[in-house]
Write a structure and sequence with these properties.
single chain, 256 residues, 4-stranded mixed beta sheet, elongated
Length: 256
């Protein structure tokens, strides 16, 4: 069991007393492996300031990182709350797992998150910002980026979950711009890049209510060194609106 840390990070300092107690428990405790055999877990501490190349080769992107290795090099990262009540049962679970959750030697775990929901914003220019972070760890800036995929992003009046239910009563020229970011991916190639989305919105009024179509322009900006990457959505409303109306004709108007 390896504890990758940096003495300068606050989460590492908070975890230090728990780690000392854990080391004492592991010296007198054995766990059962996937074959049911009793195995001893050896606790090791690695200072990633002194061993920066080693930690980078192992893909360590945050401090502290607890990782358990098998003799064949396969490993699993601990991703729960850093305390004895969660670490000891986790060790017992992963040690008895034959293959599930174990990464091969030299493998890399691509971490990430899934953000979903909605929020109310005033009908004035503004921006949304999503920053990379992890509550129990201090992330390494050079090992982190904010590449992302937008599954769905749209604007709608309060009380409506989204504007998709209005699509059948609006012409295709309008609906194609209601959510132009959907299912698109944006990659940042440098560790200190910030991807900025610029959106220009226009109100569309029809018999079923109001929707908002927008055009998109994106660019990658460079942030300060050692700052964690993030994603920004800047939006602005045009001062005019478009009214979509429908006018019917009698059948004989087409026949004459």
């Amino acid at each position: 069991l390896v504890n990758f840390l940096s003495w300068s990070c606050e989460p590492c300092q908070r975890f230090s007393p728990e780690w000392k107690v854990l080391v004492g428990e592991l010296q007198a405790k054995r766990v059962a492996d996937e074959k049911g055999k009793s195995a001893l877990v050896m606790p090791i501490k690695v200072n990633c300031v002194q061993s920066a190349d080693l930690c980078k080769d192992q893909g360590i992107d945050g401090f502290p990182t607890l990782r358990i290795y098998k003799p064949d090099g396969y490993f699993v990262d601990f991703e729960e709350e850093y305390n004895l009540k969660t670490i000891v049962p986790w060790l017992q679970r992963v040690a008895s797992a034959a293959s599930f959750g174990w990464s091969p030697p030299g493998g890399r775990f691509l971490g990430g998150c899934n953000i979903h929901g909605h929020m109310k914003v005033p009908r004035v220019p503004g921006h949304l910002e999503f920053a990379v972070g992890r509550g129990a760890q201090t992330l390494v800036a050079e090992m982190t980026n904010a590449s992302h995929t937008v599954n769905h992003f749209s604007f709608a009046d309060p009380g409506r979950s989204h504007s998709r239910h209005l699509l059948p009563v609006q012409p295709g020229e309008v609906t194609q711009h209601n959510a132009p970011l959907d299912r698109k991916s944006f990659c940042t190639l440098k560790n200190n890049e910030v991807y900025e989305h610029h959106l220009k919105l226009v109100s569309i009024s029809s018999i079923r209510g109001i929707t908002y179509q927008f055009v998109h322009f994106g660019r990658a900006a460079v942030a300060q060194e050692q700052s964690l990457p993030h994603v920004r959505f800047h939006y602005d409303f045009e001062p005019f609106a478009i009214r979509v109306g429908y006018e019917g004709k009698r059948w004989y108007d087409f026949a004459t």
